[in-house]
Amino acid sequence: MSKSVLTAEASTFVPAERLRASARPRWGEFVIRGFIGACGLFVVVATVAVITFIARAGVRGIQDVGLAQLLSGEIWKPEAGTFGGYPLIFGTGISAVGAALVGALPALLAAVWVSELAPKSARPIYRRTMEIAAAVPSVVYGWLALVHLVPQAEWVARALYGEEAQVTGEGLASSAVLLGIMIAPTVFLLSLDALSRVPGTLREASAALGASSWQTAFRVTIPGAGRSLFTAVFFGFARAAGETMAVQMVIGGARRVPHNLFEPATTVSTQIVMDMQNATPNTTASNVLFSMSLVLLVLSAGVVLISRLIGTWGRSTKSAKGAKA
Amino acid sequence: MSSLAELQRMRRRHRFIETALERLLATGSIGLAGLYVFALLVLMLRGGSKVTNFTLFASPLLDVGGEDAVRFVFAASIFGCAAWAAAALVQRVRAVPRATARVAIAFVAVAGALLFRDHLPRFLIALPSDTTAGGGVGPEIFNTLYAAVMSTAITLPIGIGAAVYLARFAGAGKFVSVVRMALDTLASLPSIVYGLFGFLVFVVEMKAGYSLLAGAFVLALLNLPLVVGVAEESLRAVPGELEDASLALGATRVQTTLRVTIPYAWPGILSALVLSIGRVFAESAPLVMTAGTTISRSDAYSLNPLRGGETLAVHLWYVNSAGLSPDKADVSAGTAAVLIVLIALTNFLASRLAHFGGRK
């Protein structure tokens, strides 16, 4: 082969049979192409499978109990056949909103400080710290909260409601703070990425107009990254709503709507884990748990949908502006 | 009408408020980061002793199948990592040929394992105990690593395949957006939903009971969006000229992908895999529902993937929610410390790999 390439005729004239040989289908090639396509298909099939399996059992549970009772009933007693999911949904909602307030907002502000106001040399150190904090397993945070946060929460509750009050440190306050601590690093890293995507020319223009770095940060950079920041907080919120084991350690596990933030409560995901251990498959008691997880699934799918909508909305307005310019 | 002096006064006041707010923000931000550093320090101080107290006396074998081999592997990894760190330090001071360093690391690992495998900290090799003090996490460490290996073996081919599909073989058709939508949905699902799915498929439908394989499969699914996302990004970063050159030489698209694109993007793909291993270490809810919370003495170190078993993260939860042992605070601290060390190692590896890719 090398000999024929060297001669002038061969380089201009390729024998027809060799062309045909290279065009002949190669089975290895087919297999690999097929595998690559199959991997793409697998992702779709797996997603559909997860959702159908959960939805099938969940819909059965909804049929057994009724949607209204499942969402608004106030008593959750599987052993008595009463499935009112309101205390669960209430617990999840309050701890996730609390986590967003306690964790996501400070994380957002910290990201603004690190990216806009802090000395440049501090940035990688801060980032590295938060990356490590984000990699710490949630059960570890859960255990630390159980040992160090719950006693403090009980002390606060005693101070607020008096010594005789029926309060323990376990409850929504502890779980909200725990979830806040847990999601803050993730929200911080996502916000930092969002802020760093804001073009530097905007900041320079703002500085050239005489704005201080504080004004630039809060009037130019944050509005510029607004949508992505919103997505970051939303992501943290969804993670807090779905967290299970860490919350289970500090929530107390009382299946009713608590009177205050320091009484034992429960959330959707912790109740699923706890009850699934006793439920016989394919009974109402088990199906109802899938219905509750369907609530979580709809919530997280809603987050995807909303963040997608925000994304496309941003893109379309941007491209419209581009077209005008 | 404001005079110039008044304007300047306003401006000064404005600047004063701004500085105050900025200081407040700085204090808060540093405090937030300090909280995490403090928490990790507390953890390592409380749990560190469990991990570092090598025993003077050889701890006897517990008559559990495969225990000797597991001790050897644990000891070899510990001494290997220590030697690796030492080699990296030495290399900063004076240049040592890479081959020499590798031989030295391997020698230290094997020698350390041969000499000290029975002197490992008791916590790392003992079996867990529900009711009495002195339980260890040997089987949990083994299960954690084993689940990570199995789940990576599933994620690796499918993740790379899907990433290659999205980055190079898919056009702009309808199906691509369906795949992306599916990945986004998978990424958003709470891990408990994965656990329920695995429970339905493996425990209810297939009646296979709790198994590590089911846990690994569910975790592989959970990691798929992350791996595909990072791998696709690094595949897209491969310069088009390289691929064009390969195609111009007569290579087919598949050959180009296998011999040019994937090797170039390999460090990025590898760091995605390492990140996903970190998540296998950390995840607990899906594993509780698919792999169970028990350790049985007879197959504590068995390689049979169809047996159930808890991992470190699950153990940390189980000890505190259902365990009755009197030293559960100590056991939890030790378990958390082992977990943090494992995750720190994988993260360090990920950043090294990404760095390696950048240099290339």
User: Measured on Cα atoms, how large is the radius of gyration of chain B?
Assistant: 26 Å
- Unreliable segments of 5+ consecutive residues of chain B: none
**Total number of strands of chain A:** 2
The major beta sheet of chain B can be summarized as:
none
Structural class category of chain A:
mainly alpha
**Any idea what the CATH superfamily of chain A is called?**
MetI-like
**Domain module count of chain A:** 1
Which ranges of chain A are low-confidence, i.e. pLDDT below 50, for 5 or more consecutive residues?
A: 1-11, 316-325
Broad structural category of chain B: mainly alpha
- Please tell me what the overall shape of chain A is: flat
CATH topology of chain A: MetI-like fold
Spatial extent as radius of gyration of chain A = 28 Å
- The amount of helix of chain A comes to over 70%
Helix content of chain B: over 70%
Mean of residue pLDDT values of chain B:
85
Q: Overall 3D geometry of chain B?
A: globular
Write down the secondary-structure element order of chain A: HHHHHEEHHHHHHHHHH
The number of distinct helices of chain A, counting runs of at least 4 residues, comes to 15
